[in-house]
Amino acid sequence: MENNLDPNNDLTTIVFEPSSVTVTGQKNQTVSGSSIIKNIGTTRFTCRSVAKSCGCTTPSGIDTGTIIEPGESKELFFSIELSSPADKFIYVHGNCTTISLRIIKQITA
């Protein structure tokens, strides 16, 4: 895992709750989901960037500059096109160790 220290902030700990989300739909359908990002550390978290493993995924709700105080949470939303059964990931970078949300796709007939 990459360490993304911001020189203006101390390192903190954030987690996804849940750390993986399963979405279900038909092939090529776009579906939505979400997960909570919680700051379980003792220092304010400042988001540096949100990245995705594929162009079929669109995250929202957490952006560059989003702040999460210790003990607080924010919801990360996403939409994803079910074009293939491969799992996808959303990565959050900031003054923490990079965390990732695993999106498990179940494509129905």
Core attributes:
11 strands; mainly beta; 109 residues; single chain; disordered N terminus
Structure description:
The model is unreliable at 1-6 (pLDDT under 50). The N and C termini lie far apart (36 Å). The chain is mostly beta strands and 109 residues long. A 5-stranded mixed beta sheet has the order 3-11-9-5-7, with no helix packed on it. Strands 2-4-8-6 form a 4-stranded antiparallel beta sheet, with no helix packed on it. It is 0% helix and 60% strand.
Distance between the termini: 36 Å
* Biggest sheet: strand arrangement: 3-11-9-5-7
How many helices? 0
Mean pLDDT: 91
Q: Give the H and E element order.
A: EEEEEEEEEEE
Strand content: over 45%
Task: Round the Cα radius of gyration to an integer and report it.
Answer: 14 Å
Largest β sheet strand count, sense and barrel closure? 5 strands, mixed
Helix content: under 10%
Number of strand elements: 11
Unreliable stretches: 1-6
Structural class: mainly beta
What is the global morphology? elongated
Describe, in short, the structure shown.
This protein is an all-beta fold and 109 residues long. It is built from no helices and eleven strands. It has strands at 3-4, 14-17, 20-26, 30-39, 45-52, 57-60, 67-68, 73-81, 88-94, 96-97, 99-108.
